[in-house]
Request: fold
Amino acid sequence: MSESGSTSSGKQLEESSEAAEYTGDEKPIQLVVRRKPRLVAYFRAKPRTAYNPTPAQVASRIAFAEAAKRARGMKLVGLPPAAVLVRETMRGAYYGGQVREPKWLRILRHLAETTAETT
Reply:
């Protein structure tokens, strides 16, 4: 019985793995170029939020898109009017942050769930 229990929990770990998000992507790695304080370029895996943005990121992106849509077609004087409108619309806006559970607590919860399944 412990064999089948460990197999099912192993399968769950595999399905819930962060790596699963990257398998369907055609380009899971991105090139990062930093110019300050000196030129540095390196590769990294795309951030997890590129695939599953947080609710706060979604809300801020929608608000930015709506502000940009309202600013479309404005005439240029100094700073582009569209940029001014977007800046004024987005100034002071807060869409909430994501409170991340400590890693040790996630591990503890996972262990509790797997032991509850096996018993």
Remarks:
- The chain has a mean pLDDT of 75.
- Residues 25 and 31 are 15 Å apart (CA to CA).
- The two ends are 10 Å apart (CA to CA).
- The helical segments are 2-15, 19-23, 55-70, 81-90, 103-118.
